[in-house]
Automatic annotation (TrEMBL):
Protein name according to UniProt: Peptide ABC transporter permease
ABC transmembrane type-1 domain: residues covered: 89-278
Gene it is expressed from: gsiD
CDD domains reported for this sequence: TM_PBP2
UniProt-listed GO biological process terms: transmembrane transport
Matching InterPro entries: BP-dependent_transpt_permease, MetI-like, MetI-like_sf
Pfam families: BPD_transp_1 (PF00528)
Length: 292
């Protein structure tokens, strides 16, 4: 009987933390992309307006007229697709991280204000969020991008405006669940000001859900940037990104499939890695969800 009762306890103690393997694996993929984005353009010199008609439409693992190996082939104007993808990874990840920071900051501020103070301010901010949620996010981004025009800065602004609502609603819910707890009431009773309560009690409680939403949201931001660039509403043609590269090869899928397929596969792997990372972080911060 003793051995039977002790066995489950041993298994529970030796069981690893939820999502550990997925966090390590997804972070490894993201770090590989980050290293390629940072150091790749330094290793492969790339001119987005250069034309080399002698080496156009070379298949992957081919050699140029100068004897150089092109791992991912060349596009219709003779540009090295690997160098183009690395430069595009830098642009896409820069836009994704910048839009994530800006939208996260806006959502955090609005969510804390709405949840902590409540009243008319809460009603105003949440009705504004409801109005924005009534429109599909990508359609709203297309509308704003069409008005502002193609530009890296405009893409960051567009994706930030269309992405703050998720952060605001999640933070507001966490603030509402935290502000009436005993330790918050005790801090308020001791005479602490609102800023001190928010800084020491509210914001630490919002950290875990905020990180989960951020990990899930950055993949959506990168995918939305690629969609805007594919439609010609994102980065300019002279600024390479995965969306513009995929769009440039859509008419050559039958003869030069690698121009669109390889950037598409690279984009899909990165977005899935961020999704797995967000799901694993959710399981880590809330182990009750790990078995569902």
């Amino acid at each position: 009987m003793t051995a039977t009762l002790d066995a489950p306890r041993v298994r529970l103690r030796t069981k690893g933390k939820p999502g550990g393997v997925r966090i390590v694996g997804s972070l490894a993929v993201v770090c590989c992309y980050a290293l390629c984005a940072v150091f790749g353009p330094m290793l492969f010199r790339f001119d987005p307006v250069a034309v080399d008609t002698r080496n156009r439409l070379l298949a992957p693992m081919s050699h140029t007229s100068a004897g150089d190996l092109v791992l991912f082939g060349t596009d219709q104007v003779g540009q090295d697709l690997l160098a183009k993808m690395m430069q595009g990874a830098r642009v896409s990840m820069t836009i994704g991280i910048s839009a994530l920071l800006l939208s996260g900051l806006i959502g955090l501020v609005f969510g804390v204000l709405a949840g902590y103070f409540g009243g008319p301010l809460d009603s105003l901010l949440m009705r504004l969020a409801d109005i924005q949620l009534a429109f599909p996010g990508i359609l709203l981004a297309i509308l704003i991008a069409a008005v502002l025009g193609p530009s890296v800065t405009n893409v960051i602004v567009v994706l930030s405006v269309s992405g703050w609502v998720t952060f605001a609603r999640v933070v507001r819910g966490q603030v509402l669940a935290t502000k009436r707890r005993e330790y918050v009431d005790a801090t308020r009773t001791l005479g602490a000001r609102h800023w001190h309560i928010v800084r020491t009690c509210i914001l630490p409680a919002c950290r875990a859900p905020f990180l989960v939403i951020a990990a899930l949201h950055i993949g959506d931001v990168i995918l939305a940037e690629a969609a805007l660039s594919f439609l010609g509403l994102g980065t300019p043609v002279t600024t390479p990104s995965w969306g513009t590269t995929i769009a440039s090869g859509r008419d050559l899928l039958g003869t030069a499939w690698w121009i669109s397929a390889l950037p598409g596969i690279g984009l899909a792997v990165l977005v899935v890695a961020f999704g797995v990372l967000g799901d694993a972080l959710r399981d880590r911060f809330d182990p009750k969800l790990a078995g569902r």
